[in-house]
């Protein structure tokens, strides 16, 4: 990137070791911007939107689509570079980095197709009560998009692209990790759209303060923690005028019933809890198991964890990779220590590693409500297991939870499983039966209740989030 201002060093969670000396691996440099650059980005987005009268919001849908198609074609050309940087910068296993990249291209292509359908519907004239009406989808204004570090490409573009397609202008703030991998993508965005339509900010969260305080952004699209979302929303002088599209904290539980098929259950819990080292918002973060099946489940999970490959993200077949920083390792260790001090046991044997940022997955049994890991979202490879005797125990957990994204039920007795479905559909936004929690397919609505989400992100819903229905009516 051409940038004449201050730069910051970017390190990978991978460490190098020389005897007893560990050093973080320097992988590149990125611009550092302050609040004044945030203000410049805002002004550019506001100018390009021009109260809905700018070139971009008034452009024909087909022409906006052409810009996005040019971008996505060029994006495909930087696949190797982005995948390599993603693997290095956030330590996502290389094969999973490839999946994230390819899924993002599919998401954009599918969103374009969904917009063509939506646009066809919008151009129809309806006649009702003697009124001829065209119900259009109109843009909302400048949008602030902030993606997370764990899906930096996918979840940044999953909000940005629908926002642009609907005629909004945007400011993108890159996540705290993932700046390097996003640099080539952001460069393409700036080249493929008219001036001022996409404005990119590298920097920490402080740079968005003037943007929100100005009251001039119409939508905050943020994927990250619930507490950060609250703080961001509060900066806007008229929060009721700020539409929020949010993907936030979750503590998705699994309920393992007496009738569970243990092969399926253990397989799904392993990948559901430990995929990308537990750093998925959709991860299974607490497991309730009927006491009669607990020993069997623990034995399967122990065996599964022992078979996981702990190593570097470029290693073929690796499962558990370095975590983002020593602070995260200390946090996970504190969660485990707290649980053990209060009576839980670590069921699996741990191992020492040559890199301080690696964390041996910990399977905890006998977890109770007094332990931090019962409530806190660990976002790492810690699997807390709670035995239950009475079906009301897991149900009560979800009812009392502050979160309501998804859950999983494992059981092969249809009547037993059915007893959980209806009450849980009213608590979370996706009930998975005999399978882990997950976002895909991307045409499914992806949202949550309580502190877990606001708005719905999916291929079609994304377009609706960043637009409003506007009626042109004429009396016949
Ligand atoms: O971190 C949250 C992601 O949206 C999870 O996506 O369920 O496809 O892994 P996923």
UniProtKB/TrEMBL annotation:
EC number(s) recorded for this UniProt protein: 1.2.1.9
Gene3D superfamilies: Aldehyde Dehydrogenase, Chain A, domain 1, Aldehyde Dehydrogenase, Chain A, domain 2
Keyword Oxidoreductase included in the entry's annotation: yes
Enzyme class: oxidoreductase
Keyword terms: Oxidoreductase
GO molecular function, one term: glyceraldehyde-3-phosphate dehydrogenase (NADP+) (non-phosphorylating) activity
Pfam families linked to this entry: Aldedh
Record flagged with keyword Endoplasmic reticulum: no
Domain Aldehyde dehydrogenase: 32-467
Domain of life: Bacteria
PROSITE patterns referenced in this protein's UniProt entry, alphabetically: ALDEHYDE_DEHYDR_CYS
The family this protein is said to belong to: Belongs to the aldehyde dehydrogenase family.
Record-given protein name: Glyceraldehyde-3-phosphate dehydrogenase (NADP+)
């Amino acid at each position: 990137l051409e940038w004449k201002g201050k730069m910051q060093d970017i390190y990978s969670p991978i460490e190098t070791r020389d005897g007893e000396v560990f050093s973080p691996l320097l992988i590149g440099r990125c611009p550092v911007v302050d609040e004044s650059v945030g203000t410049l980005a805002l002004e550019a987005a506001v100018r390009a939107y021009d109260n809905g009268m700018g070139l971009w919001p008034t452009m024909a849908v087909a022409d906006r689509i052409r810009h996005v198609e040019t971008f996505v074609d060029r994006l495909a050309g930087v696949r190797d570079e982005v995948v390599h940087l993603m693997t290095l910068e956030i330590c996502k296993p290389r094969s999973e980095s490839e999946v994230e990249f390819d899924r993002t291209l599919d998401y954009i292509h599918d969103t374009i197709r969904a917009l063509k359908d939506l646009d066809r519907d919008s151009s129809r004239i309806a006649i009702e009560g003697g009124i001829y009406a065209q119900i259009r989808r109109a843009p909302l204004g400048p949008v602030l998009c902030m993606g997370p570090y764990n899906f930096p490409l996918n979840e940044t573009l999953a909000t940005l692209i629908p926002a642009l397609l609907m005629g909004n202008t945007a400011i993108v703030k890159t996540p705290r990790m993932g700046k390097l991998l996003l640099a080539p993508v952001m460069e393409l965005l700036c080249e493929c759209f008219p001036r001022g339509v996409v404005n990119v900010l590298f920097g920490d969260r402080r740079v968005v303060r003037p943007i929100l305080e100005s009251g001039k952004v119409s939508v905050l699209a943020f994927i990250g923690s619930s507490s950060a979302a609250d703080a961001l929303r509060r900066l806007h002088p008229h929060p009721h005028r700020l539409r929020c599209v949010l993907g936030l904290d979750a503590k998705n539980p699994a309920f393992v019933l007496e009738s569970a098929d243990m092969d399926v259950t253990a397989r799904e819990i392993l990948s559901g809890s430990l995929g990308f080292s537990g750093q998925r918002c959709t991860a299974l973060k607490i497991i309730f198991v009927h006491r009669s099946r607990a020993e069997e489940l623990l034995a399967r999970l122990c065996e599964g964890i022992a078979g996981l490959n702990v190593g570097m993200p470029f290693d073929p077949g690796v499962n558990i990779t370095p975590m983002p920083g020593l602070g995260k390792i200390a946090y996970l260790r504190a969660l485990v220590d707290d649980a053990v001090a209060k009576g839980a046991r670590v069921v699996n044997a741990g191992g020492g590693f040559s890199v301080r940022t690696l964390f041996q997955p910990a399977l905890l049994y006998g977890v109770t409500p007094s332990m931090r890991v019962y409530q806190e979202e660990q976002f790492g490879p810690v699997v807390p297991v709670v035995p239950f005797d009475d079906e009301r125990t897991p149900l009560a957990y979800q009812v009392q939870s502050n979160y309501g994204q998804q859950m999983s039920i494992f059981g092969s007795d249809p009547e037993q499983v059915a007893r959980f479905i209806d009450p849980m559909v009213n608590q979370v936004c996706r009930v998975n039966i005999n399978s882990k929690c997950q976002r895909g397919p991307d045409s499914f609505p992806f949202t949550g209740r309580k502190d877990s989400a606001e708005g719905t992100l999916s291929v079609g819903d994304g377009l609706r989030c960043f637009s409003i229905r506007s009626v042109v009516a004429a009396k016949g």
